[in-house]
Amino acid sequence: MKLTRTPTRRSVLSTGAAALGAAAFVRPGLALANTPANLQLSWLHSVQFGGSYIAASNGYWADEGLDVTLTPGGPNAPVEPPVVSGTALVGISAADYTAAAVAEGAPFKIIAVAMQKNPFAIASLAANPVNSPAGLVGKKIGMSTNNTPVLQALCTLNNVDINEIEIVPTQYDAAPLVSGQVDCLLCWATDLPVAMTIQGVDNVTMLMADHGYSVYSQTYIATEDSIANRRAEIVGLLKGEVRGWNDYQKDTDAAAVLTVDMFPDAGLDLEAQKLQAERQLPLMFSDLTAAEGFGWFTEDGIAQNIETLALLGRQVTPALWDRSLLEEVHAV
Amino acid sequence: MTRTRGIHGWLSALAALALWEIVAQIYPNSFVIAGPLDVLRHMAENTGLLSRAVTATLHNAAWGFLWGNLGAIILSCTVILLPRSERTISLLALTVFCLPLVATGPILRVLYGPGNGPQIALAALAVYYTTYLALVVGLRAIPQNWSDLTRIYGRGRMTELFYIRARASLPYLIAGLQIAAPAAILGAMIGEFTGADRGLGVLTLRAMRSLDVDATWALASLAATVSILVYGIIGWIGRRLVAHPASILMTPPPVQGRENWSRSLGKAVALIALVLVLWHSVMDIFDLNRFFAKRPLDIWRYLTTNDEARSTLRTALTETSALTVPGYLAGLGLGAGLAILLTLVPALSATVLPAAIALRSVPIITTAPLIVLALGRGAAGTIIIVAVMIFFPTLIACLQGLRQTPGQIIDMFDSYAAGRLRLMRWARIPAMLPAFFASARMAIPAAFLAVTTTEWLATGKGIGNLMALTATTSNYNMLWSAIVVVTAAATLAYLVVERIERAILRVYASEQVQG
């Protein structure tokens, strides 16, 4: 494994599990033998990608002959350009983003799905809660106007008139809700609500996935070209991911500790990371993944995605998904 | 004198801190502002983390500062040695400066891969343009008889550049570097938004999303403090280097040449062709994928075949222009007005300048929520955000321009016991004009950038919103169309300002309009 920073002594010593992988990193001779591959994350380092860090530090990728670099994302780091350019072998995207990119000519396939349930949620304060889509009527919602189609889709799915909701353009920040400028926020269930809880602000989240919004999120994408020519590497990368995320499921606190130790410069708060790790668990793991394995998706799931994507103005076919690599991963 | 000045400075700094604490107390549970006491506590508790972040960001900012200013020096010397190239170089420099972060960020990240490349490049891009414009003015600010003297000794343009012009340009270079210092730090922070492991920008994002106001404001204070320090150091070096008072620049007014319209049109067409060829070939040379790095022909095809896109773009441009013009004028007025005020009442400098540098070096994502909270999302709030984002270069350039009043003239006003206001009106403001117009040109692309950023953060309208949409929709055709439109609008505005400038400087500073 290879990260863009050198592990500190503390991170090597603290987690016994981390020691193995870090040792591989300290002796570059070992890492050199492995094929380098780049996994483009969709956001800054956090426990959101906890399973990947476990895979890195436990040497799961080294077992596959891979030397995986985890590249952080950010507000100005779209995932699609590096994947299209081949700078990244695999990227973490979402079905709606991928559908849009494919419509613009990018040759992507969705090859695995980390979040079976979409993390988009409506967050509100406990004193003025929004518990159902109908409860949005007459409320002020703070969100990026980019996400208007998302809200529109939720409204259509639940027979709510979007014109009866007042959209206030805000930054991606819980402050407008806490300071009373808006009644609710359109955000991920796993970040701003976690921040509010940690800061002692009582809040309520309504997961959009529980109200018909079916869009796979944290999906793994690769280009058709890579799938054809670097298939073994992608399969190896996914194998490491699956092992890492299986460990994550068993102990989310350990994943949070590992994340904080691996990225001491990221300003992560351990308690917040633990809570986030726990909150994203039900989005990623279900009876389906218990039966078929991490990252799995079904024809039914694809059909539901196609329906919701149509509401978002994206016409896609099942050809956007390619499960064959994941089948290889879980076959062994 | 120095003693009282010092006490004055400390007193106003204390007053500013008290004011800050009071504002923080007014919005106690807003999660938007933290007072200085909370900020200090946070800093004390997180010294290691914060110092590592400052080191990382400063490292990138310093390299960007170096490269950007070197580029500016090379460009401005070229313009002086080959005056005919000025229009082309200035407009190319403007075009590159107009490229928004949403377009350059991903491209730089793909080009550099993981690491510090994009942060350094964005810091360099944030500084080269203002230094270039300031320096061109400075390199021209020489008395006619000096260059006559070089000619008499049979020396050429190179000698003149190195021995006379370079010296004359020093005060302008210093002002340029002072403008560049906070810009480089901000550029490096914003560069971290393209995906970085560490730095002040990374921590700011994290703090805002975690509702950690103490951290947010601690980071903002750090960025501001470091910027103020660098600004002060450059100013101190400047005062060592430029000890002599400015001299009178007597240059005969240029012969009014008639513009040949067909020739200017030909030049404009050639320039547009050059930009398009460069655009296409740079992307080809770096083998950038057409999915996100659209070529001129892609955009032509997109806009000519897509009526809906054209009308979306037209609506957005109208919305954006409606904010840009007042924002631009407000920022320019605020900068020049403050510069005049500070020259009349120098005691205010100790309070106003640090505040100005702070506003310039703190990312707008930190300050915008506070301004929006206080003033709302209406036109007033937006225009103030824009003015805050652009006034700084004007303030510094004009302050420096006001100081360029020739010593002899100040002596003469003094001997007639003319008041400060008269001196300002009849001597200082005319001396400031070249610097003012340079800053008026600097502010054009800055105003567009400011408005598009504000639209993204607060209003959700206009070109800024269209550009932000690319992040979710991969609509890079629309992004590049928007860039073309903004660049064209900025170029037009630049030409208008330049025309006004030439008309006025012909009278007040004819050394600037020779040739």
Automatic annotation (TrEMBL), chain A:
It comes from the Bacteria. Residues 1-33 form the signal peptide. Coiled coil: none annotated. It catalyses: N(6)-(pyridoxal phosphate)-L-lysyl-[4-amino-5-hydroxymethyl-2-methylpyrimidine phosphate synthase] + L-histidyl-[4-amino-5-hydroxymethyl-2-methylpyrimidine phosphate synthase] + 2 Fe(3+) + 4 H2O = L-lysyl-[4-amino-5-hydroxymethyl-2-methylpyrimidine phosphate synthase] + (2S)-2-amino-5-hydroxy-4-oxopentanoyl-[4-amino-5-hydroxymethyl-2-methylpyrimidine phosphate synthase] + 4-amino-2-methyl-5-(phosphooxymethyl)pyrimidine + 3-oxopropanoate + 2 Fe(2+) + 2 H(+). Keywords: Iron, Metal-binding, Pyridoxal phosphate, Signal, Thiamine biosynthesis, Transferase. GO terms for biological process: thiamine biosynthetic process. GO terms for molecular function: metal ion binding; transferase activity. Responsible for the formation of the pyrimidine heterocycle in the thiamine biosynthesis pathway. Catalyzes the formation of hydroxymethylpyrimidine phosphate (HMP-P) from histidine and pyridoxal phosphate (PLP). The protein uses PLP and the active site histidine to form HMP-P, generating an inactive enzyme. The enzyme can only undergo a single turnover, which suggests it is a suicide enzyme. Belongs to the NMT1/THI5 family. Homodimer. PANTHER family: 4-AMINO-5-HYDROXYMETHYL-2-METHYLPYRIMIDINE PHOSPHATE SYNTHASE THI11-RELATED. This is Thiamine pyrimidine synthase.
Automatic annotation (TrEMBL), chain B:
GO terms for cellular component: plasma membrane. The keyword Transmembrane applies. Residues 317-497 form the ABC transmembrane type-1 domain. It holds the Pfam family BPD_transp_1. Gene3D superfamilies: MetI-like (1.10.3720.10). Its main location: membrane. Keywords: Cell membrane, Membrane, Transmembrane, Transmembrane helix, Transport. The chain crosses the membrane at residues 61-82, 89-108, 120-142, 172-195, 215-237, 268-286, 327-345, 357-376, 382-402, 431-458, 478-497. It is a multi-pass membrane protein. InterPro entries: MetI-like, MetI-like_sf. It is found in: Cell membrane. One of its GO terms (biological process) is transmembrane transport. Belongs to the binding-protein-dependent transport system permease family. This is ABC transmembrane type-1 domain-containing protein. It comes from Litoreibacter roseus.
